[in-house]
């Protein structure tokens, strides 16, 4: 079987990593790179830097990765779908959910693999977490809370923290819990002198009844990527920055300390930090994309799922505009 001819649109901070991995994937040849801004990280190697998506398509590519600013995602995706090219579009799928639905419909009509780069699905800690939740290791899940905080990224200028970072938390939460969102309430802050929010706090509920909370900002001097899942028999903490998963089990030993035994709820139990293989999430995602093009079932985020994520984020921002009013989210019908 001939290698897939791959094209990459965008070689900025994210695109440079796609270029590195695409060059190293079995069954893939990176044959074309496009970026109107040039090659600031010098990742093109001996390939010429093409001007746009159309020039990339003329290189007879089979697959493409779109890693350009959000406002250009839809136009690039439409061109690729019309040319019969399978595509992985970095998140979010588009500027807004309406455009996202059009992109998804275009790929579906063409019979193409259309995926979106919600790379946290391939974080080893979250993959282990989902397996253990599916096995019922902590029983019924009550709450999923995430914290995603870091310094301000000068490279992001066309969206706020909700669409850039919050989309990760929405997708991973829905994926881990196997349930869509049904309602959200949110508050935002604007502290960086821009028209886009740089902090958002969200509470909500999934269709299966799980309560969710998200704290996301670009205003912290440290980087934090945590997902905390609380259930009837314990709490998992996934540190996705390190790829670590820890279980804090509910206590089972009888308490003999009188002042501590007054509390009738959960007590401390064993703490276990799990060991498991840790593959780079982006490499795992791109391997899954190639496998999907060859017809395999994968954990890739579909474009329809990515549209739901964007609808949830839009509901968050609408809620914040109404001072935290609850916004209901319709079930996906696609």
Automatic annotation (TrEMBL):
Short name of any one Pfam family annotated for the protein: GFO_IDH_MocA
Domain GFO/IDH/MocA-like oxidoreductase, residue spans: 127-236
Sorted UniProt keywords: NAD, Oxidoreductase
Recorded GO MF terms: 4-carboxy-2-hydroxymuconate semialdehyde hemiacetal dehydrogenase activity; nucleotide binding
UniProt organism field: Microbacterium trichothecenolyticum (Aureobacterium trichothecenolyticum)
Protein name (database record): 4-carboxy-2-hydroxymuconate-6-semialdehyde dehydrogenase
Highest taxon in the source lineage: Bacteria
PANTHER family for the chain: BILIVERDIN REDUCTASE A
EC numbers for this chain: 1.1.1.312
Domain Gfo/Idh/MocA-like oxidoreductase N-terminal residues, every copy: 5-118
